[in-house]
Design brief:
Blueprint lengths: L2 H23 L2 H4 L1 E2 L10 H9 L12 H16 L8 E6 L2 H15 L1 E5 L4 H9 L10 E4 L7 H4 L4 E5 L13 H15 L5 E5 L16 E5 L10 E6 L23 H39 L4 E2 L13 E3 L8 E6 L8 H10 L2 E2 L12 H5 L4 H5 L1 E5 L6 H21 L1
Parallel strand pairs: 1-12, 3-4, 3-5, 5-6, 6-7, 9-10
Antiparallel strand pairs: 2-8, 7-8, 10-11, 11-13
């Protein structure tokens, strides 16, 4: 091998190494067409800058930080004013995420009495109420309720029912639950029985700041900043002041409900992302709805037997290659199951194939592995679980990326039917 050849080989190796370093230094939103916004969202650059430099503001509990403490109070007031109708009667707590928020709320009320919880809730919430049976001097005291129909909700409320908990938008199928109608039923029960219970809690992780709050009179809201382009590790609870939540971490901060040094940088970043997301909401929803419709129409046109069903009706009345969740759903989430009729479709392999095309899609909740509790509780067949695909959209989704997704989706589905 000549010296020149050796030099060329070395140069090529260095170039490949440099290019690879640059490629892998980019975040996933730059490297791929990203369609998994229901799992997490890319933070605003300005929010991350605030989150970083906010660390230099010292400890908010110290005497010299009065102005920054007041700033946090103003931030909390602004967020609540955009979410509930009477913010003066509410408190806002910050913690590590919606999972902690939901656990705090559900543990509080599970110890007080009975909880009615949606049968398609996030699995961390389901696990929390199920585990309540293992607490000392406690017994299983919860009801899984299918909130697609409210016909039996009033009669399901008993004198010891302390909380009704339901997502606003389901994180897997995107179904929008009728929070306002549920609240009216609860209000009627309260008045008829002269009681303050049950309270209504909604996990609004998939809609907070991105969709209008459907129930400004709600009692308790939980959310997570990373779902609306904020930082990871910052959760929110908004609750009426007369509701005393269980202390999860002892300390004096946040009225003694959640101790620990106040995460001022994360609060700054969360506030900035909230303001930007609320401001962009009308235009973003319009754009996202168009993208979702384009994908669903493309599926219907290429697979005539597609049945985009309304979850209020019987979902599967004939065998279709694709079963979808389109009507009455969030514009941000389009979910469907690919059925081969032979039970051999594998959504994990399908997701990997799409990743090989530089496209990221989801296969259900990012916080759980294996079979979907949501689909199981909706009484869908196991094959629907194996073939479940979730596509979710966000502010960085482009027309070009949607066109590429349509092309690759149709191609890969057809290839699967032809070769698998």
């Amino acid at each position: 091998m000549s010296l020149l050849t050796c030099i060329i080989i070395i140069i090529v190796i260095i170039l490949v190494w440099k290019i690879s370093s640059i490629y892998y230094s980019l975040n996933i939103y730059d490297r791929y067409d990203y369609f998994d916004y229901a799992a997490t969202t890319p933070p605003y650059d300005r929010s991350m800058t605030l989150g970083y430099f906010g660390a230099y503001q010292g400890n908010l509990s110290q005497f010299y930080n009065r102005e920054n403490r007041l700033q946090v109070e103003r931030i909390n007031g602004y967020i609540m004013a955009n979410v509930v109708s009477a913010p003066l009667f509410f408190n806002l707590l910050c913690n590590s995420g919606a999972s902690e928020s939901n656990n705090t709320i559900l543990k509080t009320f599970s110890k007080m009495g009975r909880v009615i919880i949606g049968n398609t809730e996030h699995h961390t919430s389901m696990a929390c109420v199920e585990d309540s049976a293992n607490w000392p001097n406690n017994k299983p005291n919860y009801l899984l309720y299918d909130f697609r129909s409210l016909d039996r909700l009033y009669e399901s409320i008993t004198p010891d029912t302390k909380l009704i908990s339901i997502m606003h938008v389901n994180n897997e199928i995107g179904y929008i639950y009728p929070i306002m109608e549920i609240y009216r039923i609860i209000e009627t029960y309260r008045k008829n029985n002269n009681t303050e219970f049950p309270y209504l809690h909604s996990d609004m992780s998939q809609s907070f700041a991105k969709m209008e709050n459907p129930c400004p009179e709600i009692d308790i809201i939980s959310a997570s900043a990373h779902k609306f382009y904020g930082p990871l590790g910052c959760g929110i609870i908004i609750h009426k002041k007369n509701i005393k939540l269980q202390t999860m971490i002892y300390g004096t901060q946040q009225n003694g409900t959640r101790g620990g040094t106040t995460n001022y940088p994360a609060i700054l970043a969360t506030a900035d992302s909230f303001c930007s997301t609320v401001s962009d909401m009308p235009n973003e929803i319009k754009k996202i709805t168009q993208f979702r419709d384009e994908i669903s129409v493309a599926l219907i046109q290429n697979f005539p037997a597609v049945n985009m069903f309304d979850l209020k009706s019987n979902p599967i009345n004939n065998y279709s290659p694709i079963i979808g969740f389109y009507p009455n759903s969030s514009p941000y989430i389009l979910s469907f199951s690919i059925l081969t009729g032979k039970g051999r479709f594998n959504n994990i392999k399908f997701k990997d194939r799409m990743l090989g095309k530089d496209i990221i899609i989801g296969t259900g909740s990012a916080c759980s592995m294996g079979s979907s509790t949501v689909l199981n509780n909706l009484k869908l067949p196991e094959e629907a679980n194996q073939g479940f695909i979730r596509i979710s959209f966000g502010r960085l989704t482009t027309k070009k990326a949607v066109n590429r997704l349509k092309k690759q989706l149709i191609s890969e589905i057809q290839n699967w039917f032809n070769t698998e």
